[in-house]
Design brief:
This protein is 39% helix and 16% strand. With 340 residues, it is of the alpha/beta class. β7 (222-224), α9 and β8 form a beta-alpha-beta unit. The protein is globular. Bound molecules: (3S,4R)-3-hydroxy-2-oxopiperidin-4-yl beta-D-xylopyranoside.
Length: 340
């Protein structure tokens, strides 16, 4: 691949720079790019409940997850865990058609066992993922803003969120605990999340704890070139910071409008489309750098356009044949890219 400097070195004084990995790609060119440019990784799918149990299975199997942990540790890459509690990629037996007592026991057993298994090996967890609705016009009442189609919610009401965080905190007091969601550039959705985080943290501190229960908010960051707006991201990011929590950008990609989840249409980007995408990455990283004191990690959701979950939208920093794109230079040197 082209000889370019490691991305992570451009951000050593700012935040960790991450990307995704998987148990089926722990060697080869993609893994070499991960080692060169990134200092933290998120397993794209292997840590999700459906993969830890095997669909339908009720016994945890950490073989693939452990292979990832060992490979990252050997490469000096930190590990972020994704995700403990979600309404997708989760076996139905955990929460569907069971009593509240059983759902609570399953949730606590899952969180406790998984976090304990990786105690000291995972720096931070997405404890709860995607609990809020889209298209909100106001986020004042966070309970009203919660997704009601989540099996955990149907079994346990909003209490499932706090239960999950408490179990994670008890299992590994040193890991950073995140609430993670998408479309948080929408201010109403961000407000609902911020209000929940504030209420749960105030309650926790009211019990005499000297730290937060929810340490941070993960803004996924699945953006599109046709509507990406750096100021909307900035406004929400500053709202979270004002609540006394850290922020991470947890799943960054900026796709073109040709995207479709799970397809791999072999499109290529024109030079001008690459430059305008590169500018958006540069605007975003320029803004993030200015907030670095409160940002822990910026993780991209895909190394190259071929292997991205939104492949047809060419959202990544590397092309299908692993060459750097304009977007790479936009991240490497935002100021320089925007000045040019
Ligand atoms: C996606 C993965 O990238 C795909 O491989 C998988 O088929 C579905 O999940 N929000 C999340 C991630 O929190 O877990 C999702 O990852 C992308 C959206």
């Amino acid at each position: 691949w082209t000889e370019v400097p490691p991305l992570k070195d451009a951000y050593t004084n700012d935040f960790l720079i991450g990307n995704i990995t998987g148990s089926n790609r722990l060697s080869g060119d993609e893994f070499n790019l991960l080692k060169k440019h990134y200092n933290v990784a998120t397993p794209e799918n292997d840590f999700k409940p459906e993969n830890l149990y095997g669909w339908g299975g009720r016994t945890l199997n950490f073989d693939n997850a452990d292979r990832i942990e060992r490979a990252l540790s050997a490469a000096g890459i930190k590990l972020h865990g994704h995700t403990l509690v979600w309404h997708r990629q989760t076996p139905q037996w955990m929460n569907d058609g069971v009593t509240a007592v059983v759902a609570k026991a399953n949730l606590e057993a899952h969180v406790t066992q998984v976090v304990t298994h990786f105690k000291g090996k995972v720096i931070s967890w997405d404890v709860v993922n995607e609990a809020f609705n889209d298209g909100l016009s106001n986020g004042n009442d966070w309970r009203a803003a919660l997704r009601k189609d989540v099996p955990w919610y149907q079994a346990l009401n909003e209490g499932y969120i706090e239960l999950a965080f408490r179990a994670a905190r008890a299992a590994d007091p040193d890991a950073m605990l995140y609430y993670n969601d998408y479309s948080l550039d929408n201010f109403a959705k961000a407000s609902a999340v911020a209000n929940m985080v504030e209420e749960i943290n105030n309650k926790y501190k009211g019990e005499g704890h000297t730290r937060n229960l929810i340490d941070g908010v993960g803004m996924q960051g699945h953006y599109q070139t046709t509507w990406f707006n750096v100021n909307s991201v900035k406004t929400s990011l500053e709202l979270f910071i004002s609540k006394g929590v850290k922020v991470s950008i947890s799943e960054l990609d900026i796709r073109t409008a040709d995207y479709k989840e799970g397809t791999s249409a072999d499109t290529t980007m024109s030079a001008s489309a690459q430059i305008s995408q590169g500018k958006m990455y540069a605007q975003l990283f320029q803004m993030l750098k200015a907030h670095a004191a409160n940002i822990e990690r910026v993780t991209m959701w895909g190394i190259d356009d071929k292997n991205s979950w939104l492949s047809a939208g060419n959202p990544c920093l590397f092309t299908r044949d692993l060459k750097v794109k304009q977007a790479f230079y936009g991240v490497l040197d935002p100021e320089g890219f925007l000045d040019y």
